[in-house]
Request: fold
Amino acid sequence: MSGRFITLDGSEGVGKSTQLANIQAWCTAHGITARYGREPGGTPLGERLRAILLDRTTDADPLTELLLLLAARRAHLQQTILPALARGEWYISDRYRDATYAYQHYGRGIPLTTETDRDPDLALILGSSADTARDRLAQRGAAQDRFEAEDADFFARVAAGYRKRAQAPHAVWIDAEGDEQTVFARIRPHLEALRQP
Reply:
């Protein structure tokens, strides 16, 4: 079977990390060799850029932020994602290009531009109410990073961006309300469809 590229996306607190664990278990149960990464991140360079981007003391204008993210993505794609796909493995990324559209283009207001990276085979965009997301973030108990500390207006724009991106051919909107197994039950049919030759 050829490699498959899946992205898991959505605003802060919608349950991406929880569903990533369910996808990992599903791949293992079905004998699928899968690799996992995150954005920004996925490579040593990407992880260093991630630390800069999430640091609340980082003073970066929106365009600088976008360029740092794209640099991390380029390294992730070339060094990690494409080699895994070439080996016939599945690659699941916690965030990818749809996050850039939602956060930088819609959230930060940067005009939409054409990007030169590979579309995923499937983009799972998770969405929940602002109240649910806020409650899930509070349960983490960790200090907020630079993005999580943004105001409600920013996240309303991000949510609108994700709704728009969910209309792309490679994307599917997943209702992230409910317990983790309910949400994963909404994801599973899309994973099963990828297993078809």
Observations:
- The chain has seven helices and five strands.
